[in-house]
Predict the 3D structure of the following.
Amino acid sequence: MCHTIGGGVLVGPDLQGVAERRSEGWIISFVQGSQELVKAGDPDAVAIFEEFKIAMPDQSLADDEILAVIEYIRTAEPTGDASSGPAEVMEEATEEQILLGQNLFQGTTRLANNGPACNACHEVRNDAVFGGGILAPDLTTVISRLSARGVAAILARPPYPVMRRAYLNSALTEEEAMALVGFLQQADADQALYQPREYGIKLFFAGIVGTAFLLLLYTLIWRGRSKGSVNKAIFDRQVRST
């Protein structure tokens, strides 16, 4: 679930009144190919993308099917407050849930239905997680961007084609989803404490510079060292004294 009807912003905008804000033709074009509108510079599509920083997956729906959805939205009862629900429980995540979420994220604990670990495609800037994929976005601040309930909705029903295929027959359990959201909440809250992943490269070059500096320092210190053999100096004194 990415949208509500009268329940406020979730992963995407609240759809209540969308038929009054946008024309039916625009809605059809956006649902069928949102990024085409963004690339074309459509101001409304660009504004939505900039606000939510996430692309709506193209939907293979016919025009009349989208019109039916629009009509449903016009007459539907509000779906409730987007701030209520699972997020309230997740804000109280226990240390055990957070640790479970961390282990599930990096695959040290297998998912119940044998789905792929999150870090196969994503990474999180957290010293407790080793490595991560680069095929999908960094999830360090995903809670700030999408809210806990929004992330929970994505985990429950993935809207992205690749993610949907990956978990088609291996959906997350509710316990696993809550644990992952708990871990991501902590990672988001603590993200300022952690260095970005490229800090290893910076340390490598800093090590080279430090080594060069020490070699130069040692060279300067040893310039006044004795260069001849101590035994030869003793021998020369003995020869001069005879």
